[in-house]
Fold:
Amino acid sequence: MSTHVDIDPAILYFGTPVVVLSTLNEDGSTNLMPMSSVFWLGRTAVLGMGASSQTARNLRERPEIVLNLPSVDLVTQVDRLALTTGSAAMSAAKAERGYVHVADKYGHAGLTAYGSDTVLPTSVAECPVHIEGTISAIHELGEPKLLAVEVAVTAVRVMPDVRLEGHPNRIDPDRWRPLVMSFQQFYGLGERVHPSRLASIDEELYR
Structure:
């Protein structure tokens, strides 16, 4: 007999990696937005975001992006970006929730801009992983205020200490410690609990 009960949660963030998105503002500066609605399929990243955000506006007009993946030791800097918006014309809903306009997100968070290879927005130097890409499609999700954004990955850059020894193009999952968001709280990964049978498949076969 099931012991489950019915609930109606307002959000369904059961645990996903945190990503800091870099997009290009109209004046050529880079806007940063932390988020955790993201997943990858092959060389495509899919992002979920609000349609009224500065990031969404930037992507419609200048469809280039960097997905900066922070490690757990960057939680303080990432949290400084929370409740900030790059848009001076803030919506009433954001103002009610406590958002403030910040033009210089790098300075506000204590992060450093770093040049990108294939796109114009700058990446975050402190993040161990930079995934550059261009926007291939933007979809409205059920209602106009939510978007699903498809990103075609054009380049991946990582700090050497997260690479798997002897494999220049692979990440070592025991050394990569991503920051994770679960129901508005930050977490890190614990130790590996069990080897996966999928590891018997060479990663290159997915290329």
The chain has one domain: 16-206. Residues 16-206 form a domain with the Pnp Oxidase; Chain A fold (CATH 2.30.110.10).
